[in-house]
């Protein structure tokens, strides 16, 4: 999926900030689902961390509680 190089924010700051919040929530849901699937398919926490560009400790701390 191509990533736009420029994104026009709404002129109204309240609308722009609401859009940021909505995008963060969507990104969090997508990350949780992708991590869960990767772990279910046998990926290690290290592999997931590398794919996300974070440390193993960071991804484990953020997502391990949902794997119990």
Word description of this protein:
- This protein has 68 residues and is an all-alpha fold.
- It has one domain.
- Helix 2 crosses helix 3.
- The longest helix is centred in the middle third of the chain and has 28 residues.
- The termini are far apart.
Instruction: Please describe the biggest sheet, giving its number of strands, its sense, and whether it closes into a barrel.
Output: none
- Discrete helix count: 3
Structural class by secondary-structure content: mainly alpha
Distance from first to last alpha carbon: 32 Å
Low-pLDDT runs: none
Order of helical and strand elements? HHH
Which percent bin holds the helix content?
A: 55-70%
What fraction strand? under 5%
Core attributes:
68 residues, mainly alpha, 0% strand
List the helices and strands and how they pair.
Layout: H1 13-40, H2 45-52, H3 56-63
Helix pairs in contact: 2-3
In brief:
The protein is mostly helical.
